[in-house]
Design a protein that fits this description.
alpha+beta, 24% strand, globular, three-stranded antiparallel β-sheet, 35% helix, 79 residues
């Protein structure tokens, strides 16, 4: 069994195109029964404007390439 070493780093806007591409390819390959509703440009705009600018996003880096990502949205609690 082989293991792949990876680093987890906070994402930034400069990685938006690579993250959007990974998101699109993964969704199409893993969920082929879902219709493609948005263009590549729309995916990129959403990622930049809604995800990377408003959420905590981390990427898994393997050999200087993004192998995965996760986004967390932290809501403020009512006290």
């Amino acid at each position: 069994m082989s293991t792949t070493k990876f680093d987890i780093k906070e994402a930034d806007l400069s990685q938006a195109e690579e993250i959007a591409s990974l998101f699109r390819r993964s969704r199409i390959e893993m969920l082929p029964f879902l219709p493609v509703l948005h263009s590549k440009e729309e995916d990129l705009a959403f990622l930049k404007e809604q995800v990377l600018s408003r959420q905590h996003v981390y990427v898994a880096m393997v050999a200087d390439r993004i192998a995965g990502f996760v986004a967390f949205f932290e809501q403020k609690r009512k006290v």
